[in-house]
Write a structure and sequence with these properties.
By secondary structure, the chain is an alpha/beta fold. The chain has a single domain, classed as TIM Barrel (Alpha-Beta Barrel). Helix 1 packs antiparallel against helix 11. The longest helix has 21 residues.
Length: 269
């Protein structure tokens, strides 16, 4: 298929993808995300809210995303919703430079501490300078399993770590053991994955780690979440919102969705 044919299909395919993943995204507005988080918290399940926005490659965009998170924190506090906030450092300027992202993260930390709303800072790569800066803040670190192990084993005073499991972790037979080792050294360890089935299995394998929280994604399979709850596991739900949802959907759509999407896109009958 030539490029022009692919482009002509993009609006249609975007609509198809949105229809498939719509239940996994709490709309495009902050209000819709807060409503979704409140509905979940009313069921006794904690939540973490994430604004969907691409990496900021200039300071005005980084400042805009930062201000959005500041307003989100204030509104969570005003409404009394028991939700945390999940921030990707790439959204607030990490691509421009560590100093930009750290400066914006400090603004978010200040408002979060003032309003008693917990914040997670996620990044694809934890450099030593970044670890040093983040460790000095009263926030949690969200990163890959490999980075989490390196962070915890680095001798830092580690209290809050969210392990983000990707496709590469699903077939790792040692994953429960690795996670257990992290959980023993962290005050509040969270295990986050787009695979409800994996979280359900790990809630059984990690049944002795009572401080471990299993974070499902919005649109979760109720059967898998209930299995985890029956095992007395602590569960949480990640609630994403925003107009820039395509990249999130591509990386977090439930298994089988992306194969269907690719078939439709390339007319592979």
């Amino acid at each position: 298929m030539v490029d022009s044919e692919i482009k002509s299909n993009e609006p249609i395919m975007e609509k198809v993808l949105h229809r498939l993943v719509s239940k996994h995204i709490a709309g495009t507005t902050m209000s819709s995300a807060l409503d979704a988080a409140k509905g979940i918290s009313d069921k006794g399940i904690s939540t973490s809210i994430m604004f969907l926005s691409g990496a900021a490659m200039d300071k005005p965009k980084a400042a805009y995303v930062t201000s959005t998170y500041l307003e989100l924190i204030r509104r969570i506090a005003r409404l009394g919703i028991g939700a945390s906030v999940h921030v990707r450092l790439e959204q607030i300027g990490l691509g421009i430079g560590d100093s930009v992202a750290i400066a914006n993260m400090k603004k978010i930390e200040e408002i979060s501490n003032r309003n008693r709303v917990f914040v997670w800072a996620e990044t694809d790569s934890l450099s030593k300078p970044l670890i040093r800066e983040l460790s000095a803040m009263k926030i949690g670190i969200a990163c890959s399993l490999d980075d989490a192990e390196r962070y915890v084993n680095g001798g830092k005073s580690t209290k809050y770590v969210k392990v983000l499991l990707g496709e590469e972790n699903r077939k790792d037979k040692e994953i429960a053991k690795r996670i257990g080792a992290i959980a023993k050294r962290v005050e509040m360890p969270v295990l986050s994955s787009g695979s409800d089935e994996l979280l359900s299995k790990l809630s059984k394998a990690g049944r002795n780690e009572r401080n471990l929280i299993f974070e499902f994604r919005l649109g979760y399979n109720k059967r898998h979440l209930k299995k985890a709850q029956k095992r007395k596991a602590k569960v949480s739900v990640l609630v994403p919102f925003g107009k820039d949802w395509v990249n999130y959907a591509m990386g977090n759509a439930p298994e089988g969705y992306m194969k269907f999407f690719a078939k439709r896109l390339f007319h592979d009958d």
